[in-house]
Design goal:
This protein has a single domain, classed as Thiamin diphosphate (ThDP)-binding fold, Pyr/PP domains (Rossmann fold). Helix content is 41%, strand content 11%. The chain is of the alpha/beta class. The chain is globular.
């Protein structure tokens, strides 16, 4: 059961804090909010092979909110895409683990992301290609709620419904935080689930930190026919670290030594 992944998610949260602290820069808030989603995806649903990361039959995962790549790197290292020790090279000159994921630098990355709002359009193209190839690949796009303010996202939402892309699932990490403040203050997007439904998407709203709920929603998405699927995952920015939770100041700031020690203690003993 996914609840058995709880110790792993704690370990991955600790990895996120350690690598961002070592780098002296990065985005802890959104990385900590999305890690549960990525953990369940890679452990239970995403068809992938770390030894053959470019295997044509693999499913595709696009982290549209590319600044949260510390979470993706932590999961990929745990799955065996590269040695865990390499996590400490985050954002270093010459490292494969840059501040936003790069497709041609690190095997297992499907798209260079970070220009927010583009991931769903990329996933749309991949889903259309997979249907033409008739190989059964699924495409998962993990988006931030702040980037749902981008117009390009809504163009892709319309197109996916028109083409009935039932092999495309978007998971929105709805932590209500972006670099400029809370999403509902900067540019409100709610009622997000209702909007997605009105655009023709099969939509579910879940607790994005409930591992069983994440697993159930992803399983249900696979059973949907003739419609793309959206999962609105309600999360907490900075989840697991008290002084980072729901604090947009930690959107893109590295902890100092004292803050790192406190964060690790809370994560590992919580």
């Amino acid at each position: 059961m996914p609840t058995q992944l709880l110790p792993l998610t704690k370990a991955l949260r600790a990895d996120i804090i350690r690598m961002i602290a070592a780098a002296g820069s990065g985005h802890p808030g959104g990385s900590l909010s999305v890690i549960d989603i990525l953990t369940v995806l890679y452990d239970k649903h995403l068809r992938h092979d770390p030894q053959r990361p470019d295997r044509p039959q693999r499913d595709r995962l696009i982290l549209s909110k590319g600044h949260a790549c510390p979470a993706l790197y932590a999961v990929m290292a745990q799955r065996g895409f590269f040695p865990k020790e390499e996590l400490m090279t985050l954002r270093k000159l010459g490292s494969r683990l840059q501040g936003h994921p790069e497709r041609h630098r690190l095997p297992g990355i499907e798209a260079a992301t970070g220009s927010l709002g583009q991931g769903l359009s990329i996933g749309l193209g991949m889903a259309l290609a997979a249907r033409l190839d008739q190989t059964g690949q699924r495409v998962y796009v993990v988006a931030g709620d702040g980037e749902m303010q981008e117009g390009q996202v809504w163009e892709a939402l319309m197109a996916a419904a028109k083409f009935k892309l039932d092999n495309l699932t978007v998971i929105v990490d709805h932590n209500n935080g972006q670099i400029d403040g809370h999403v509902d203050e900067v540019m409100p997007i709610d009622p997000l689930a209702e909007k997605l439904k009105s655009f023709g998407w099969e939509t579910r709203t879940i607790d994005g930190h409930d591992l069983d709920a994440i697993d159930a929603a992803l399983s249900a998405a696979k059973a949907v026919k003739d419609k793309p699927q959206a999962i609105v995952a309600k999360t907490v920015k900075g989840k697991g670290v008290s002084f980072m939770e729901d604090n947009v100041a930690w959107h893109g700031k590295a902890p100092n030594r004292e803050e790192t020690e406190k964060a690790l203690k809370e994560i590992l003993n919580g």
